[in-house]
């Protein structure tokens, strides 16, 4: 199977599986965390590394791969000192539905007994210290 979800059928003909393509793109460690962080908007490299707990080398590799796939854009901001910001492209923003589905599934199946859902009603922050649209109670 190739990186992009293409397999070969009985006669060697290429067969494209969109699910495999998405899984191959997003299954590297930290990739989903990076995309989720960028769903909140444009972020600096060090901000992503710090809030997500990702080492800089791994983050650089994942961001580069996402940029090559057209999921993320990298912008050098000409300030003093200059800095780099990352943002989702429309292709990356289209992944939001996947995260909404994961949040719905998590609310239904992963909530520990006695735990409250993070949301507008509880005003309790999640592990990373902020509430976002994906962790709010339905």
Question: Could you name the ranges where pLDDT drops below 50 across 5 or more consecutive residues?
Answer: 120-132
Mean pLDDT rating: 83
Order of strands across the main sheet = 3-5-4
Span between termini: 38 Å
H/E element order: EEHHEHHEEHH
CATH topology of the largest domain: Arc Repressor Mutant, subunit A
What's the helical proportion of residues?
40-55%
Biggest sheet: strands, sense, closure? 3 strands, antiparallel
Count of distinct structural domains: 2
Number of helical elements: 6
Keywords:
alpha+beta; 6 helices; single chain; two-stranded antiparallel sheet; 138 residues
Brief description of this entry?
With 138 residues, the protein is an alpha+beta fold.
Please tell me about this protein's structure.
With about 140 residues, the chain is α+β, with helices and mostly antiparallel strands. The chain folds into two domains: about 5-95, Arc Repressor Mutant, subunit A; about 95-138, no CATH class. It contains six helices and five strands. A hairpin with a 5-residue loop joins β4 (about 70-75) and β5. The longest helix has 14 residues, at about 95-110. The model is unreliable at about 120-130 (pLDDT under 50).
Describe how the helices and strands are arranged.
Layout (H helix, E strand, L loop, with lengths): L5 E3 L5 E3 L1 H9 L4 H8 L4 E2 H8 L3 H13 L3 E6 L5 E6 L1 H4 L2 H14 L29
Antiparallel strand pairs: 1-2, 3-5, 4-5
């Amino acid at each position: 199977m190739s990186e992009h979800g293409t397999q070969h059928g009985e006669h060697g003909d290429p067969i494209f599986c969109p699910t495999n393509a998405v899984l191959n793109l997003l299954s590297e460690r930290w990739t989903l965390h990076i995309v989720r962080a960028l769903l909140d908007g444009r972020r600096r490299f060090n901000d992503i590394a710090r809030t997500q707990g990702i080492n800089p080398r791994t983050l650089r590799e994942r961001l580069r791969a996402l940029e090559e796939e057209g999921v993320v854009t990298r912008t050098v901001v000409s300030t003093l000192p200059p800095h780099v910001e990352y943002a989702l492209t429309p292709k990356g923003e289209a992944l939001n539905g996947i995260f909404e589905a994961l949040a719905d599934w998590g609310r239904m199946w992963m909530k520990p007994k006695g735990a409250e859902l993070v949301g507008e009603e509880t005003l309790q922050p999640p592990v990373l210290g902020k509430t976002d649209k994906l962790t709010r109670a339905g």
